[in-house]
Amino acid sequence: MPSRNNSTCLQQYRYLLTVFVLLLAGCASPGATLQVKPRHDAGIQYSPQEITGMMEILGYEQLRVLDPDIQRPVLVATNDGEYRLLFQYKDNTGIRVGVRIVMGNGNIGLHLYQPGRDDLDDAAMVQYERLRQRLILQYGAEHVSDRHPALAP
């Protein structure tokens, strides 16, 4: 039976690992976030394969993320009821999109960011708008919202 000390260390380790995964996926970095809320149809659940296909069409390649449960890089990590994915734009490797899909309610968060930057440059803003337009085309405008400070009213 593990001691209380080992249990505390394990909890701290999992916390640090979760923070690392969030940083790796871009969810805790400056940038711009798009959110897709589930359709009102019962039983709709967005899948990692659906998002991966859409991102490939837009010119992104999938990168590996650290799965905290198995301690290895994988294409689709699962943690705390979410799928997590990471993509990098092929024509400009400084543009990345971290994706979270909530398993329970189907919400999708797509966070476009540039590692090492506090804001998005013009090329990244173009990619943000392309991603937003594709999400609207694929899921409908009523299901897509953006949370970019420069775009807020």
Describe this structure as you would to a colleague.
- The protein is α+β, with helices and mostly antiparallel strands.
- The chain has one domain: S-adenosylmethionine decarboxylase, CATH 3.60.90.
- It is 33% helix and 27% strand.
- It is built from three helices and nine strands; from the N terminus they run αβαβββββββαβ.
- Strands 1, 2, 5, 6, 7, 8 and 9 form a seven-stranded antiparallel beta sheet that branches. A two-stranded antiparallel ribbon has the order 3-4.
For the record, the count of structural domains works out to 1
Instruction: Encode the helix/strand succession as letters.
Output: HEHEEEEEEEHE
**What percentage of amino acids are in beta strands?**
25-35%
Number of strands: 9
Structure annotation, total helices: 3
Query: If you average the pLDDT, what whole number results?
Result: 79
Principal-axes geometry comes out as globular
**Which stretches are low in confidence, meaning pLDDT under 50 for 5 or more residues running?**
9-28, 149-153
Radius of gyration: 16 Å
Distance between the termini: 56 Å
**Helical content (DSSP H or I, runs of 4+):** 25-40%
CATH class descriptor: Alpha Beta
CATH topology: S-adenosylmethionine decarboxylase
CATH architecture: 4-Layer Sandwich
Largest sheet: 7 strands, antiparallel
Derived from helix and strand composition plus strand pairing, the structural class reads alpha+beta
